Amino acid sequence: MAEAAPILETRDLTIRFGGHAAVDGVSCAFARGTLTAIVGPNGAGKTTYFNLISGQLRASAGAVLLKGEAITGLGAPARARRGLGRAFQLTNLFPNLSVLENVRLAVQARAGIGLDFLTMAARRGDLAERAVAHLARVKLADRAEAPAAALPHGDQRKLEVAILLALEPEIFMFDEPTAGMSVDEVPVILDLIEAIKAEGDKTILLVEHKMDVVRRLADRVIVLHNGALVADGAPAEVVASPIVQEAYLGLRAAS
């Protein structure tokens, strides 16, 4: 039986800042329904690679393909409309709107409704119901009326995940989703990522430094070092490989 075509692929993806290649010719394909962890030392190019895939940065060379179609020339909003969902390492919220309003805007965007959320809220109670359901999944339903800016950092990260859920992407991109969270808050996000993975038809890309999280969640691990792809395989195999021991784990042990 022929192997299914990848839902997402990068081909020789490269970006240069001056003479430095922050991402250097990375070719990688991602299958539907899998969770791939992207690891590497600080400065390896992980977040830059994410930015190239999601459209926050334009590539110097190479291509990004979604369902076999080149999307390299599209900006971030157009890629999001095609099913690429991105949660950032730093929160990306409307701080002066309430928690509920932040998520309701995402629900409306997914439904193809304009962003006049105040009038829409009066006419479409189902939008608020769906937004509350997403907040409940991240344990924020009790903070629905609070301004987003008033939330502690960990709750802002949860809110960003709720917004991502509301957009219903086919591909979820998480950039260190538990960064800055307390030990008590981390399980909420990890359980949620596991639940998305269990649906079976969503593809997840996860940038993560914590190897215990990688071992728990990942089907596959790819390693970037100095902007290049240096390892790709099953988590146990990749973590044990000499190049990762030297380029990643060794550097952490020496710090």
What does this structure look like?
- This protein is of the alpha/beta class.
- The chain is built from 10 helices and 10 strands.
- Strands 6-7-8-3-9-10 form a 6-stranded mixed β-sheet, sandwiched between helices. Strands 2-1-4-5 form a 4-stranded antiparallel β-sheet, with helices on one face.
What share of the residues does DSSP label as strand, in percent? Answer: 15-25%
Provide the succession of SSEs.
EEEHEEHEHHHHEHEHEEHH
Determine the mean pLDDT. 86
In DSSP terms (H or I, runs of 4 or more residues), the helix count works out at 10
Task: Please give the order of strands in the largest beta sheet.
Answer: 6-7-8-3-9-10
Distance between the termini: 47 Å
Helix fraction by DSSP (H/I, runs of at least 4): 40-55%
Q: Short summary of the structure?
A:
By secondary structure, the chain is α/β, with parallel strands linked by helices.
Can you tag this structure with a few keywords?
255 residues, 10 helices, alpha/beta
How is the secondary structure organized here?
Layout: E1 8-17, E2 20-30, E3 35-39, H1 46-54, E4 61-66, E5 69-70, H2 76-81, E6 84-87, H3 99-111, H4 117-123, H5 125-137, H6 153-167, E7 171-175, H7 186-198, E8 203-207, H8 211-217, E9 220-225, E10 228-233, H9 235-240, H10 242-254
Parallel strand pairs: 3-8, 3-9, 6-7, 7-8
Antiparallel strand pairs: 1-2, 1-4, 4-5, 9-10
